[in-house]
Design a protein that fits this description.
It contains three helices and two strands; from the N terminus they run H-E-E-H-H. It has 105 residues and is mainly alpha-helical. Strands 1-2 form a two-stranded parallel ribbon. The radius of gyration is 17 Å and the shape is extended. The mean pLDDT is 84.
Length: 105
């Protein structure tokens, strides 16, 4: 929840949430697509619901599967779990790390 909403604990006051999180930076009228845990944020998140036409459900399934595949590749290739040892400067390391993340996408 911390990446999307910017809160670390369930009872944390909204004023203390991290405003750099995705929830606060989505443009007005745009929505993220997520699983049902985010059903409490209908103004910012689209989830699969009963009553959606079959084509919408299939579309959402494809999007969520693509997202799961991406996260699985990040884990399988140790992109986020191991120390990145390439590049000399911080800027070069960040650029190379970004390239590695983009390659598994």
């Amino acid at each position: 929840m911390s990446v999307f909403l910017g809160m670390e604990k369930k009872k944390q006051p909204k004023a203390e949430w991290n405003r750099d999180a995705l929830y606060w930076n989505l443009p007005k009228g745009k929505k993220a697509i997520a699983d049902s845990i985010y059903s409490g944020c209908p103004e910012k998140v689209m989830i699969k619901r009963e009553g959606h036409p079959e084509w919408v459900t299939e579309y959402l399934d494809r999007i969520l599967n693509r997202q799961e595949t991406y996260h699985e590749r990040l884990a399988n290739f140790n992109i986020l779990s191991s120390k990145f040892r390439h590049g000399k400067s911080s800027e070069e390391k960040m650029q190379l790390h970004r390239m590695a993340v983009d390659c598994v996408a």
